[in-house]
Write a structure and sequence with these properties.
Elements lengths: L1 H12 L3 E6 L5 H10 L4 E4 L14 H10 L4 E5 L3 E3 L4 H9 L3 E4 L8 E2 H6 L9 H7 L10 E2 L2 E8 L6 H15 L8 H11 L5 E3 L4 E3 L11 E3 L10 H12 L12 E3 L1
Parallel strand pairs: 1-2, 1-12, 3-12, 5-9, 10-11
Antiparallel strand pairs: 3-8, 4-11, 5-8, 6-7
């Protein structure tokens, strides 16, 4: 899945240095295959991620690596359960302009809101997922930045020097004080990304139908980028069929170090 994700995306982006995080499950054969198929790739291990005062696991290591890489260049986070089918002008524009972007996390699209408005617009007021719980309490948080967006950390762009470890540690410690041990649950890294990206200057939200998720209804032909979210990933063989089409269309060399001056993690 990662090979389809990175090759289909890179074919549209054109230039970048590529980094992949090994969560500890990759075998020696799989690592060798990645190096053969993605020339110039740098494999990072999850255990080597920067050590900071934030939760462990739950994708926090990918955010820490993002911040580290973004000290040198624009960085794009790309999950392996994604597929790029058409040109991504908005993403390329963001790279060139050094402005952030993030994939909408909601089926109908997303907007940058005040924290108070975001608390009022929680889609499941009774939900107990930690991201939902955190969003409900945004309005009562004091001393935080003013904005929030319900985005998706599976695909976002971070300009060079836009985010520091100190900022993320401070926010994580604040939320631990508010939510206790629940802040260690899966989903808090995405909520953190949503908060910080919403408060960066010039952030664009990648909206459906061009950028979307594989919900119960499959995306149409107008969709350029698909995130195959959770349990909908393999419904009706849609992912397999679309992947075969993309693989057939790939014709260009994969690795050309970047004129855009960016990196993909």
């Amino acid at each position: 899945m990662y090979l389809v994700a990175i090759k289909s995306f890179y074919a549209q982006l054109g230039q970048a240095n590529i980094y992949a995080i090994d969560d500890g499950s990759l075998t020696a054969d799989q690592r060798r295959l990645l190096c053969e198929q993605v020339r110039g790739i740098t494999l990072l291990h999850i255990s080597d991620a920067p050590r900071k005062r934030v939760p462990k696991g739950g994708c926090w290591e990918r955010l820490l690596y993002m911040i580290q890489l973004a000290q040198m260049a624009y960085v794009i986070q790309l999950d392996s359960d994604t597929l790029t089918r058409q040109p991504l002008a908005e993403v390329i524009d963001a790279c060139i302009a050094q402005t952030p972007f993030i994939l909408s996390g909601d089926q109908s699209g997303a907007r940058i809101l005040s924290r108070e408005a975001a608390s009022q617009e929680v889609t499941n007021p009774q939900g107990q997922h930690i991201q939902t719980v955190m969003e409900r309490r945004l309005a009562e948080a004091e001393g935080l930045k003013p904005c929030y967006v319900r985005g998706c950390a599976a695909f976002f762009g971070l300009p060079r020097g836009a985010l520091s470890f100190d900022e993320v540690e401070e926010f994580s410690e604040y939320m631990t004080g508010m939510l206790g041990t629940r802040w260690n649950e899966w989903g808090t890294e995405q909520a953190t990304v949503n908060y910080f990206v919403a408060n960066l200057p010039g952030t664009s939200i990648l909206q459906p139908p061009k950028y979307t998720h594989r919900w119960k209804v499959a995306p149409g032909s107008e969709t350029a980028f698909i995130h195959f979210i959770g349990t909908h990933r393999f419904e009706n063989q849609f992912y397999a069929l679309q992947s075969r089409k993309v693989i057939k269309a790939l014709r260009h060399p994969l690795f050309r170090p970047g004129r855009l001056g960016g990196a993909i993690a």
